[in-house]
Write a structure and sequence with these properties.
Blueprint (H helix, E strand, L loop, with lengths): L4 H16 L18 H12 L7 E13 L4 E8 L2 E7 L2 E15 L5 E5 L2 E9 L6 E10 L11 E12 L4 E15 L7 E14 L2 E7 L1 E4 L6 E15 L2 E14 L7 E11 L2
Antiparallel strand pairs: 1-2, 1-15, 2-4, 3-4, 4-5, 4-6, 6-7, 7-8, 8-9, 9-10, 10-11, 10-12, 11-13, 12-13, 13-14, 14-15
Length: about 280
């Protein structure tokens, strides 16, 4: 890891939370929707719901990432995530939110030939109260599925672990943290075990009319490696707009990689579209 990276991760996550937490009292939940026909208020509410990982909104995010500065040649790696989110009620008081991440990657190889294909799939099932209070939360299992089409893009291991998300949405703010940890349970015996932590502190400030600014750190720790952390920090701008009749939240983000193994990326650029299916 780069010198001082562990301290940078901790301090940056703390700064994100401290600068974002407002003095405004009270929270608004995703169920408090604006009156039908108010297009600007509806766009603002949809923006808030896409910032909540356990909202009752069906969505289909498509996220493209470009990582710059990889290896001695400072090459560019791309990662395209397909991330459907489907919530459904199992009891009158409890929802289950199924979140799946299917990554398509193109990475520079050691011999100068790019490696392309599907990576391992991560699926999470959050159990969350149907009616949230000031603190919105969800918890459940996360699964690692060895779906990679190239051994360089996956672990060849099945994995399982816990996942928890907690956030609050007072006034125009969304402040939260998502955590999961994966341990491998079976798979190829000649591959390293999976023992990894994912931490994602996030902050958004909604400016109205579906426009928001924010910041997110996506820190991954591989506890089986000597250089443990990889942590891009992204600053984002997003806007809810109509694509035909379909509401879409468009997101543009960029920022430095504050921790990475030797030869890792220096910074990341992101463009994403979250296709929404409000009920």
């Amino acid at each position: 890891m780069k010198p001082g990276c562990s301290r940078v991760i901790a301090r940056t996550a703390l700064v994100l939370a401290l600068i974002a937490y407002p003095s405004v009292a009270g929270a608004q939940t995703a169920s408090q929707a604006p009156p039908p026909g108010d297009a600007q208020a509806q766009a603002a509410e949809l923006a808030r719901q896409t910032q909540n990982p356990v909202s009752s909104l069906i969505s289909f995010p498509l996220q493209a990432n470009w990582d710059f500065g990889l290896g001695d040649r400072e090459a560019v790696g791309t990662l395209f995530n397909i991330q459907p989110v489907v919530p459904f009620g199992i009891t009158p008081s409890t929802n289950v939110i199924l979140r799946v991440i299917m990554p398509l990657a193109s990475q520079p190889g050691a011999d100068g030939v790019r490696v392309n294909g599907l990576g391992d799939v991560v699926a999470t099932a959050f159990f969350s109260p149907a009616k949230s209070g000031r603190i919105i939360w969800g918890a459940g299992p996360v699964f690692l599925l060895p779906a990679a089409t190239n051994t360089a893009l996956g672990s060849e291991k099945f994995g399982i672990g816990p996942s928890v998300v907690a956030l609050t949405q007072p006034g125009p703010w969304t402040v939260g943290l998502l955590f999961n940890h994966l341990w491998s349970t079976s798979g190829a015996t000649d591959r390293d075990d999976v023992n990894s932590t994912f931490l994602q502190p996030f902050v958004n400030y909604n400016l109205g009319h579906g426009l928001a600014v924010g910041g997110v750190m996506e820190a991954t720790a591989n506890w089986e490696a000597e250089e443990t952390w990889t942590a891009p920090l992204l600053f984002t701008v997003s806007k809810v707009a109509l694509l035909g009749k379909r509401p879409v939240n468009f997101i543009v983000g960029a920022g430095p990689t504050v921790a990475s193994p030797e030869g890792g990326a220096n910074w990341r650029f992101r463009f994403a579209g979250i296709f929404m299916f409000p009920r």
